[in-house]
Amino acid sequence: MKNFLRKLLRDESGQGMTEYALILALVAIGAILAMTALRVEIVAVFEAIVEALEGATGS
Question: Domain segments of the chain: what residues?
Answer without folding.
Answer: 16-57
